[in-house]
Amino acid sequence: MFDTKPWYQSKTVWGALIAIAAPLADMAGLTVDEAMKGELADHLVSIAGAFGGMIALYGRVVATRPIR
Q1: Percent of the chain beyond pLDDT 70?
Q2: Where are the bilayer-spanning segments (predicted)?
């Protein structure tokens, strides 16, 4: 079958969001060059993955039913 992953772990999704946000940032006076876009995507994927892990751990800690 297909090997899937959560949307927030996709560099494509983060790249698209950055591509949407970059012109808006430019209109606000902030310059985002191509190298910075790539770095932002990498960092956001890492942050999102860490955040997802923290949410999963929190869910396990507060769960009321044991796992098998």
Answers
A1: 99
A2: 12-32, 44-63
Backbone angles phi, psi at 32, to 5 degrees: -120, 105
CA distance 4 to 41: 19
Residue spans of the domains in the chain: they are 7-61
Q: For the beta carbon of residue 40, count every other beta carbon within 10 angstroms.
A: 17
Tokens encoding 31 = 């310059």
Residue that the structure tokens 């993955």 belong to: 49
- Condensed to tens digits (0 to 9), the pLDDT of residues 7-36 reads 888 888 888 888 888 888 888 988 888 888
